[in-house]
Design goal:
Elements lengths: L6 E4 L6 E4 L11 H17 L5 H20 L1
Antiparallel strand pairs: 1-2
The structure holds zinc ion (ZN).
Length: about 70
């Protein structure tokens, strides 16, 4: 009546089913290649974070044009 003695999960990298237990050192990934690939994706995301600081300077530009608008109205 018991189900599988191990869990089947979806590989976050390729979407294939992978075995989630001690016999799979790359869990939840299905293989070492998927694991390495995912880590390289993570590194990519980290490099993008510093770019977010640019949004603050664009906000400055926005409030500046707002001032010009209200000047026009009055
Ligand atoms: Zn995979």
């Amino acid at each position: 009546m018991n189900g599988q003695p191990y869990r089947i999960v979806r590989c976050p990298s390729c979407g294939k089913t992978s075995r989630y237990d001690e016999t799979n050192p790359n869990r939840p990934f299905c293989c070492e290649r998927c694991k390495t690939y995912d880590i390289s994706q993570w590194a990519d995301e980290k490099f993008r974070i510093p770019l977010a600081h640019n949004e603050q300077s664009s906000e400055d530009t926005l409030s500046e044009s707002e001032d010009l608008d209200s000047d026009d109205n009055s």
